[in-house]
Amino acid sequence: MSFDTVGTLLADIANLLSEGLRTLTQTDSSQWGLDEHEQVRAFQDALNEAKTDFQELSPLVKGQIYYENDRKRESLNELKSLRSKTELHIQHIRDWAETGGPINPIWVNDTKLLRRELHRTQCRAVGRIYAVEQESEPRCLGGFLVYRKQRDWTNQPCNRIDEYRSRQLDELVTCNSVGKFERFGDVDVTFICEFCDGHIVWEDLENMPSIRAVDESVAASESPTPPPPQLLASNTGRPPASPSPPGKRRA
Hints:
Elements: H1 6-25, H2 34-57, H3 64-68, H4 73-99, H5 106-133, H6 141-151, H7 161-178, E1 179-184, E2 188-193, E3 199-202, H8 211-220, E4 248-250
Antiparallel strand pairs: 1-2, 2-3, 3-4
Region (Disordered): 216-251
């Protein structure tokens, strides 16, 4: 019988990454080139981000103990798969340390991909816990985090364009922590949420939201005071439903 939890699997992955870093630093650094130093930084960055994610995400779902002990099948399967990939990656480092010679420069990219996958796996694991906690229909944690940032502004009037721009940049930071813009095909751009499988595709880049588009719309308005973001009543906890603008579709 398996006693794996989100916490034990995350610990296994962190220990493997730490072993890779430790194995590297125990070799003769006088023989290193740029690739070896880059590999060390990649391991350090992966470990630091994993720790930060754990510390920042767990409070969103009742705290660290609740998150560590979660055993949802989808989360465990994703983490087990990631652990196997990490084990294979670290085995390359072990073999290299025994044989010597220049390190394979491809491995640093593999480490970065593992770091990216670990970040998204943690987000998805927390997102599943959050969805189950909802009393009504399941909602995306990423969408809630963006909405919460907007909701904080409802009682704070915005009287200057520079202040409004600052708020938009603040919201952009939150959006970037929730998901990423990526190319979709040859001409489209898609925003992919880290917490769920949801994504939005823009077929027309002119309609894609941006700080520049916001500034142009504000400058074109008659009033120097931009309108506050449209929000739903705070007791609902979700953003308002609205039709998608031209050139946008939800998938």
